[in-house]
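quick one, 337 residues, struct below
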Amino acid sequence: MKVLVTGGTGLVGSHVCRALVEAGHSVRLLVRSVDKARNFYSGLGGVLPELVQGDITDQSSVQNALQGCEAVVHAAAGTPMQIGSVEQLFAVNVGGVKNVVGAALGLGIERIVCISSITAIFNTDGSKVTADAEPTPSSMPYGQSKVEAEHYLRELQAQGKPIAVVYPGGIAGPDDPGFSDTCKAIKHRIEHGYRIFGDGGTQLVDVRDLAALVQSFMETGASGRFLLPGVYLKWTEQADMIEQVSGCTLQRIQAKGWQLRLTGRVMDIVRKFKPLDSPISAETMRYATQWPRIANTNELENRGISLRNPEETLRDTLAWMVSAGHLDAALCPKLAP
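---
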């Protein structure tokens, strides 16, 4: 089967690409930089996917990339940390979805998987975060961009279009060509201190498990909405685990949730005037301080997929960060070469 994957030089798209190639499928990537993609995949060894230059915000390049494909995985997305303007964020997260999915349906493609985010249906009450939950309007740009894309996809699903939407939680894993926000956050905590607040926590899903679910959807076909928040860890548990697998000593800073949310708003204001190398924003702090426990889709069990222990995920992620030079090996003595 020939599959177009968008976001192939990002964490999710690259792992989906590798899972599909290893399963014997032909994969084409729509990328903005062919050289960047070629360098990354050549470094991994194995089969090099077909590379087509273009941008999901450009309809003509999307149409061109989809020619001859039987399925599509739309994993490309932007975050406030990656994209400077709100207009561009919406162009990528809303316009990009409409371009890719609309063109795929126009060509009669019947296997479409879109990677969304739980932020589109976020609620501080975990029992209300279900596949049937209504999109939650957000005052923050990233969350609202996901909400608007969600409305578009649900209108198509209501018409019976063959679209599967997956909602992951915090995604982590090794071999991250774009050095995603989760990796940036872990690096920031190791280098600048780990802020602990109350009994709060987060959910972490290994990108390899997410890729396995997407591969299964590609091979068997799936339509509907599927939650994959991952394994819940209290912030103290995650801090303990990072120290255990890496040998680092974290500076633990006690903080209140409201203080971190306020800090995020201040950082957003400063970011308007100068770039900041920090994962802290009003939006990230909202999710970090108010995340509830959310159940994973039953499709994991139905398809024989088991979520990795987060200890393995963190160990592999940190080991890759050290080997790739993103983290000083002296900070993680257990993972030093």
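The radius of gyration is 19 Å.
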